[in-house]
């Protein structure tokens, strides 16, 4: 044994050939501070070992290395930028030490080789991958760029254009694509991996492979003439700006770093990367995106735990109510391997629901993500029916009929008498109290809400709503089923609007008050999209949701919170509704809609809409971008805080992810509570106080004021 620690072992496996094996105590290998220290210690020994002729890097696990230990990031990134540069240099020096071994090196890749795992592989002279390999540099998804030499080495291995595409998109590659692009040197079957790596290092030792020449290219400037460099980097910058925009600084800084490093050797290139990484580590975007990743892991962890606790296995489901929503739910269940019965009382609705599922599957076939046989298999696992008899024997029912408490109550009562005594019953409702609906059932302990967001196949969130009588076993089984469907489930307690809609409607109310005070709704949309980062501004979102739906929900919220969410006098939403302007669904709302050349909805300003609003609003007034953001966002943040304080949602992480996954809250801001932390709670309270005269939705809670005074945050590091 040459070296052994809790994370790596190094030993000879043939004459002069050593195997450097990553073998962390957990389920995967990752670079935490201890592992990096172990790597340094092992490499220093290897540099002095005169018997060493060649080295193979390998993993004892099913995957190579998943990357750096992200759980260490947020605390470390609290350091000043000047202190972060030597910190990251200390780590990247270890990768240089690996690259500088005086013998040929080969890495045997399998499973995931991401982030730092990919960067470690780039230090080797040769990379052989098995067919399971997924390799990439996803750091931009955390608001960062590679920090262990990735921006220096990858361009010198695969070329600047390919490297920039890898780094700026963060997309992983399969083994064959990585081979085609030059990132790996060979691809073999899993059972041939070590034999191939051994053969490759032996060929290098024997001089059959010129490993010194390959290594020299990684230590030298990029081979690009001035014209090539200008075209390459200009094109990359244009593409990055068009896709990432100003809110995500990491991709652009990565391109600029590669550009500046093009004429430098490895030392100069890595030094630029160290500085760029430290700069990005201090940005709000990185804090938010790292937090988002950790929050997502928390949600996945809870879902995994629910799966272990669930006593009821969900092997067959039923959806009551076809149509677009029912078809979307049926598609999602069936496509993830849970057969589903889709039941309705109307044959046309069944045809619509099946049509929706077939349309979605057809798109997967077009994109070559599914073949015709796979599509046929999924379609065959959806059973449309008009009969309750077909529903017998299912493990779970998702009621998705019209949003009317009487109709839903009748359907739920009827289906309870049809399904087995241990079948779980859920309601896909966006506003109706789960406790109210549960009153229709003999056994409310097996009932809860299961709120999907439209379009079902695109929106990650499912709100699992616990009623006062819902059992823990029911919640565990439904959370596990939602996760099995590929969704991110968040458990919330029952209240008007549950969590997401309860938080959304104060935002809409803030928008309505702005319009009534003379704001131009189109300008409000532009500010909230371009500057704050929402995918749609509030007027556009209302049109997409449907102004008839929004009008109904506003009534529900006003009834539930009569002082805070009382209907706004001359509410623009109600004015649109009464004028039969329902948004995209009938072509007119705040905007007028037509179809573009591809048949997608296209919005335009409409004189009739402007005239309608002019009749109820004050004279036109120009509001600053900061005013627009404050008047719409303060009510939303306040309501999210109230939901956390009241226990409607269990944690700040789930509160933030609920809005990111359910509404498209800008990920680079991390969610409403992370955003409040970012601007500072004291600053948030002061901002809210400026608008407190506008109503209760702008008034912070006593606990928020106390937290601000005590310097507390929602996310202590």
UniProtKB/TrEMBL annotation:
GO terms for biological process: fatty acid beta-oxidation. The keyword Transmembrane helix does not apply. Residues 316-495 form the 3-hydroxyacyl-CoA dehydrogenase NAD binding domain. This is enoyl-CoA hydratase. InterPro entries: 3-OHacyl-CoA_DH_CS, 3-OHacyl-CoA_DH_NAD-bd, 3HC_DH_C, 6-PGluconate_DH-like_C_sf, ClpP/crotonase-like_dom_sf, Enoyl-CoA_hydra/iso, FA_oxidation_alpha_subunit, FadB. Its EC number is 4.2.1.17. It catalyses: a (3S)-3-hydroxyacyl-CoA + NAD(+) = a 3-oxoacyl-CoA + NADH + H(+). It comes from Rheinheimera riviphila. GO terms for cellular component: fatty acid beta-oxidation multienzyme complex. Pathway: Lipid metabolism; fatty acid beta-oxidation. Residues 497-593, 628-692 form the 3-hydroxyacyl-CoA dehydrogenase C-terminal domain. In the central section; belongs to the 3-hydroxyacyl-CoA dehydrogenase family. In the N-terminal section; belongs to the enoyl-CoA hydratase/isomerase family. Keywords: Fatty acid metabolism, Isomerase, Lipid degradation, Lipid metabolism, Lyase, Multifunctional enzyme, NAD, Oxidoreductase. GO terms for molecular function: 3-hydroxybutyryl-CoA epimerase activity; delta(3)-delta(2)-enoyl-CoA isomerase activity; enoyl-CoA hydratase activity; long-chain (3S)-3-hydroxyacyl-CoA dehydrogenase (NAD+) activity; NAD+ binding. The keyword 4Fe-4S does not apply. NCBIfam families: FadB (TIGR02437), PRK11730.1 (NF008727).
């Amino acid at each position: 044994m040459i070296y052994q620690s809790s994370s790596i072992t190094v030993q000879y496996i043939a004459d002069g050939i050593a195997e450097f094996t990553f073998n962390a105590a957990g389920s995967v290998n990752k670079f935490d501070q201890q592992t990096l220290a172990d790597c340094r210690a092992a490499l220093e020994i290897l540099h002095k070992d005169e018997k060493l002729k060649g080295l193979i890097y390998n993993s004892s696990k099913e995957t190579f290395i998943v990357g750096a230990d992200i759980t260490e990031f947020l605390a470390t990134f609290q350091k000043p930028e000047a202190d972060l540069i030597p910190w990251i240099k200390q780590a990247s020096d270890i990768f240089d030490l690996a690259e500088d071994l005086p013998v040929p090196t080969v890495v045997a890749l399998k499973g995931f080789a991401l982030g730092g795992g990919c960067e470690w592989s780039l230090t080797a002279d040769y990379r052989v991958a098995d067919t399971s390999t997924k390799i990439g540099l996803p750091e931009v998804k955390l608001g960062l760029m590679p920090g262990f030499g990735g921006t220096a080495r990858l361009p010198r291995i695969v070329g600047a254009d390919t490297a920039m595409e890898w780094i700026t998109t963060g997309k992983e590659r399969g083994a064959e694509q990585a081979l085609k692009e030059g990132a790996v040197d060979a691809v073999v079957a899993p059972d041939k991996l070590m034999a191939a790596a051994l053969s490759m290092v032996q060929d290098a030792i024997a001089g059959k492979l010129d490993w010194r020449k390959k290594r020299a290219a990684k230590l030298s400037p990029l081979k690009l003439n001035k014209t090539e460099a200008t075209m390459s980097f200009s094109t990359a910058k244009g593409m990055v700006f068009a896709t990432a925009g100003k809110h995500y600084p990491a991709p652009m800084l990565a391109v600029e770093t590669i550009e500046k490093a093009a004429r430098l050797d490895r030392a100069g290139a890595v030094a630029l990367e160290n500085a760029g990484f430290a700069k990005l580590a201090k940005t709000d975007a990185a804090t938010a995106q790292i937090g988002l990743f950790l929050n997502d892991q928390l949600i996945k962890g809870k879902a995994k735990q629910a799966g272990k606790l669930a006593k009821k296995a969900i092997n067959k489901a039923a959806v009551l109510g076809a149509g677009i929503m029912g078809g979307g739910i049926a598609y999602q269940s069936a496509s993830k391997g849970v057969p589903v019965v889709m039941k309705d009382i109307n044959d046309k609705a069944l045809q619509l629901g099946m049509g929706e599922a077939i349309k979605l599957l057809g798109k997967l076939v077009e994109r070559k993500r599914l073949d015709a046989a796979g599509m046929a298999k999924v379609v065959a696992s959806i059973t449309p029916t008009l009969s309750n008899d077909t529903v017998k024997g299912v493990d779970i029912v998702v009621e998705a009929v019209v949003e009317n408490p009487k109709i839903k109550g009748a359907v739920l009562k009827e289906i309870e008498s049809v399904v087995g005594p241990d079948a779980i019953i859920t309601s896909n409702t966006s506003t109706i109290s789960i406790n109210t609906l549960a009153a229709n059932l003999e056994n409310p302990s097996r009932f809860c809400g299961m709120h999907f967001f439209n379009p079902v196949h695109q929106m990650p969130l499912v709100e699992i709503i616990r009623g006062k009588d819902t059992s823990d076993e029911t919640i565990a089984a439904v959370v596990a089923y939602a996760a099995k469907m590929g969704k991110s489930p968040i458990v919330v307690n029952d209240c008007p609007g549950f969590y997401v809609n309860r938080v959304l409607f104060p935002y809409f109310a803030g928008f309505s008050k702005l319009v009534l005070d003379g704001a131009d709704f189109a300008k409000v949309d532009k500010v909230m999209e371009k500057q704050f980062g929402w995918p749609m501004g509030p007027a556009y979102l209302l049109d997409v949701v449907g102004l008839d739906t929004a009008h109904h929900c506003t009534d529900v919220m006003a009834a539930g919170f009569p002082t805070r969410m009382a209907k706004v006098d001359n509410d623009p939403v109600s004015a649109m509704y009464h004028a039969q302007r329902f948004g995209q669904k009938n072509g007119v709302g705040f905007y007028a809609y037509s179809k573009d050349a591809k048949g997608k909805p296209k919005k335009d300003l409409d004189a009739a809409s402007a005239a309608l609003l002019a009749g109820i609003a004050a004279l036109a007034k120009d509001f600053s971008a900061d005013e627009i953001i404050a008047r719409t966002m303060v009510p939303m943040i306040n309501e999210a805080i109230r939901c956390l304080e009241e226990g409607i949602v269990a944690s700040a992480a789930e509160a933030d992810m609920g809005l990111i996954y359910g509404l498209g809250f800008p990920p680079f801001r991390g969610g409403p509570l992370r955003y409040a932390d970012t601007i500072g709670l004291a600053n948030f309270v002061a901002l809210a106080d400026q608008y407190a005269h506008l109503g209760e939705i702008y008034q912070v809670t006593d606990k928020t004021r106390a937290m601000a005074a005590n310097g507390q945050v929602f996310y202590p590091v």
